[in-house]
Specification:
Helix content of chain B: 25-40%
Largest sheet of chain B: 7 strands, mixed
CATH superfamily of the largest domain in chain B: Thiamin diphosphate (ThDP)-binding fold, Pyr/PP domains
Organism (chain B): Microlunatus elymi
CATH architecture of the largest domain in chain B: 3-Layer(aba) Sandwich
InterPro entries (chain B): THDP-binding (IPR029061), Transketo_C/PFOR_II (IPR009014), Transketolase-like_Pyr-bd (IPR005475), Transketolase_C (IPR033248)
Distance between the termini of chain A: 37 Å
Largest interface: A-B, 44 and 47 residues
Oligomer: heterodimer
Pfam family, one (chain B): Transketolase_C
Domain Transketolase-like pyrimidine-binding (chain B): 4-179
Radius of gyration of chain A: 22 Å
Cofactor (chain B): thiamine diphosphate
Structural class of chain A: alpha/beta
Strand content of chain A: 5-15%
Order of helices and strands of chain A: HHEHHHHEHEEEEHEHHHHHH
Radius of gyration of chain B: 19 Å
Structural class of chain B: alpha/beta
Number of strands of chain B: 14
Shape of chain B: globular
Chain lengths: 383, 324
């Protein structure tokens, strides 16, 4: 194992399902999933990929300002997302579309942000999935603070499975360079917060490779802060499920934080704004294509006769329907009105903002209906 | 009625806030056993426990960032930034997260976070311990910014800030911490986002807040000897501004001077001057003038008495205004 590099491709990690689709086990972790569950993971990952490819297509057609693809990271997201308990809470980055899926977020609500219709179109309290956070790593502190709140609410270590709760804070490999992430680790360790940090190490922070972020494997970072870290085959949904489940249980029981490095690969661009052919080699992408998270589950299901061939056909049809529906509803999203944006800045409105809103509304009224039809929506700058 | 220092008044106000709502938690560096470097939180951890008065790791972004998470969990965190200059490591969490969470969620989420910042100079401190960064936060939609200048306001305004569902940046005039004043614990407090006429007058309006209010009151007393009547307004709220009171006074006197310690360029005084210009153009006898810090980094402490606006600089501003 490449101990002196954050990026060694000859890595040691927890794996329960090989790229060929055969089950393996380690001393610490075993697959506990039934074939029915595994078939469910296949469906989740296939639909997540379809949402992702449809969103990418929508961006290319000018319907989204930006899209952050999760192509290739479906296992890391579905495996960890499906390990969540009914009281757990998630603080995502801006790429956790698969995790959002596991929590029942309507995918069109993810698109709203990227289409520029709003800044986060779901209710974090109801869905237990916080809004996407664009500034790298900032959400790891929010996750930690929320976990500190759970602990203060007496929702940790009671032994009651319907009561105990934990938090997952997601981050990327680039975020591990951020001060906020180090501070989150300090706070989480210091207060023994029930939080699981899941780093999807997809090897690239836009164009910068993991070597630019870390000289040691990322999973070893947490040891320096005083809590366990583990590296998992992030393209193995069964391993991600098992390891996340155990880390969440540890957090819920009051044993404190832990860190999971999901060793995976971003198959697409960082976002639709960059061109990965400028900074990485095709060979590398091909190498990772052979480790595809969905193909190996399909191989397992076929090999073991867990489902019939019809199952795959049905899921493909479901994915096509989902994509068509998503596209339709994306295009139907109503245009937002700037005049409404004045209402959400403060809980208690300020007189000056009220005045600005009234003045703007009056200004709008000076245009005739014909004028307004001529006004095209302005495309805002997107990072 | 009690006669308290500003520090003790804040302590009493925080104590009452902690008693009033079990969701209120304090967090900051050295605020527990030590009671904060200015002793504002003295005795609170002893009485309310370590879970509610939290000694934080030495990481300002961490203090504010975890407060965001706690607020999302239903708590009402009150963060202490130990000194003004140390707020900057938390700048991202304050302006990108605290300020925007409500808007980002279209009003679904609230951020009842108070960030207490001891600010301003005059205590002979080293670098980064005498800053006046209020304009950064007044410039940020989503934040509310206030600064008490006396013990009574300190006692009430901190409780009102804690009770507010909006995030409040609470600037405490550190060189006034040990000045005493009457605190009426039983009166109905005036609304948080309103200003006060602390000395009525007719010739020139002097607008100040926090540590400069006392300087301006002293200047008004000295001006009276020269037969000039200054109206001193304690702004109390910096964002939103109480333009009703500011406008009324400007229209009455026709002359306005804004006094603050912060560097003049891009400071709050410029904003107030522009707003007065919009509202009171035909009432003004002179341009709105600013008396403030020079556009240099806060100097070494042996120079700060010269750097900070004092009675003479305020009176010089009065002379300039009346010369028009």
């Amino acid at each position: 194992m490449g101990e002196m590099s954050g990026s060694s491709t000859d890595v040691d990690f927890i794996q329960l399902l090989t790229p060929e689709g055969t089950l393996v086990s380690s001393d610490e972790y075993q697959n506990t999933c039934t074939d029915e569950q595994i078939a469910g993971f296949y469906r989740d990952m296939t639909l997540t990929r379809r949402i992702d490819t449809e969103a990418t297509a929508l961006q290319r057609q000018g319907e989204l300002g930006l899209w952050a693809s999760c192509l290739g990271q479906e296992a890391a997201q579905i495996g960890s997302g499906r390990a969540l308990g009914g009281q757990d809470h998630v603080f995502p980055t801006y790429r956790e579309h698969g995790v959002a899926w596991t929590l029942g977020i309507d995918p069109v609500d993810l698109l709203r942000l990227f289409r520029g219709v709003d800044l986060g179109g779901w209710d974090p309290d109801q869905t237990r999935f916080n809004l996407y956070t664009i500034v790298i790593g900032a959400q790891t502190l929010h996750a930690t603070g929320y976990a500190m709140g759970l602990e203060r609410d007496g929702l940790v270590g009671t032994g009651d499975p319907d009561r105990d709760a934990a938090v997952i804070g997601y981050l990327g490999d680039g975020a591990t360079s951020q001060g906020d992430v180090s501070e989150a680790f300090v706070f989480a360790a210091s207060y023994n917060a029930p939080v699981v940090f899941i780093c999807q190490n997809n090897q690239w922070a836009i164009s910068e490779p993991i070597e630019r972020q870390s000289r040691i494997p990322l999973y070893r970072r947490s040891a320096g802060f005083g809590f366990p870290g583990v590296r998992v085959d992030g393209n193995d949904v069964l391993a991600m499920y098992a390891v996340t489940q155990q880390a969440l249980e540890r957090a819920r029981s009051g044993s404190g934080p832990s860190f999971i490095e999901a060793y995976t690969y971003r198959m697409g661009a960082h976002t639709t704004s960059d061109d990965p052919t400028k900074y990485r080699l095709g060979d590398e992408v091909e190498h990772w294509r052979l480790k595809d998270p969905i193909a190996r589950v399909k191989a397992y299901l076929v090999r073991n006769g867990a489902v019939t061939e019809d199952y795959f056909t049905e899921i493909d049809a479901e994915a096509d329907d989902l994509a068509a529906d998503l596209r339709k509803r994306c295009l139907e999203l109503p245009e937002p009105r700037l005049v409404d944006a004045f209402d959400h800045v403060y809980a208690e409105q300020t007189p000056y903002l009220e005045e600005q809103k009234a003045n703007y509304a009056a200004y709008l009224d000076t245009f005739t209906d014909d004028d307004q039809e001529d006004q095209l929506p302005v495309q805002g700058g997107v990072r | 009625m009690s006669r308290l220092t500003i520090a003790k008044a804040l302590n009493a106000g925080l104590r009452r806030a902690l008693e009033a709502d079990p969701k209120v938690v304090l967090a900051g560096e050295d605020i527990g056993k030590l009671g904060g470097v200015f002793r504002v939180t003295e005795g609170l951890q002893k009485d309310f426990g370590e879970a509610r008065v939290i000694d934080s790791p030495l990481a300002e972004s961490g203090i504010v960032g975890t407060a965001v998470g706690m607020a999302l969990r239903g708590y009402r965190p009150v963060c202490e930034m130990q000194f003004d200059g140390f707020t900057m490591p938390a700048f991202d969490q304050i302006v990108n997260q605290v300020a925007k969470m409500r808007n980002r969620s279209a009003g679904r989420l609230k951020m009842p976070v108070v960030i207490r910042i001891p600010y301003g100079g005059g205590i002979g401190a080293v670098e980064h311990h005498s800053e006046s960064p209020e304009a950064y936060f007044c410039h940020t939609p989503g934040l509310k910014v206030v600064s008490p200048s006396n013990a009574h306001d300190a006692y009430w305004m901190i409780q009102q800030a804690v009770a507010s569902d909006d995030p409040v940046i609470f600037f405490e005039p550190k060189r006034r911490y040990h000045e005493r004043g009457e605190v009426d614990e039983h009166t109905e407090p005036q609304p948080l986002h309103t200003s006060s006429v602390v000395r009525p007058g007719s010739d020139v309006t002097v607008l100040a807040y926090g540590p400069m209010v006392k300087v301006c009151l002293d200047a008004a007393t000295a001006a009276e000897d020269e037969g000039r009547s200054l109206e001193v307004i304690d702004l109390r709220t910096l964002s939103p501004l109480d333009m009703t009171m500011i406008t009324e006074s400007a229209q009455k006197t026709g002359r306005v001077i804004i006094v603050h310690e912060a560097a003049v360029s891009g400071g709050l005084g410029g904003e107030i001057a522009a707003r007065i210009g919009e509202h009171c153009f035909y009432s003004l006898e002179a341009p709105v003038l600013r008396v403030g810090g020079f556009d240099i980094p806060y100097p070494a402490s042996r120079l700060e008495e010269e750097y900070l606006p004092d009675l003479d600089r305020v009176l010089d501003g009065v002379d300039r205004s009346l010369a028009f």
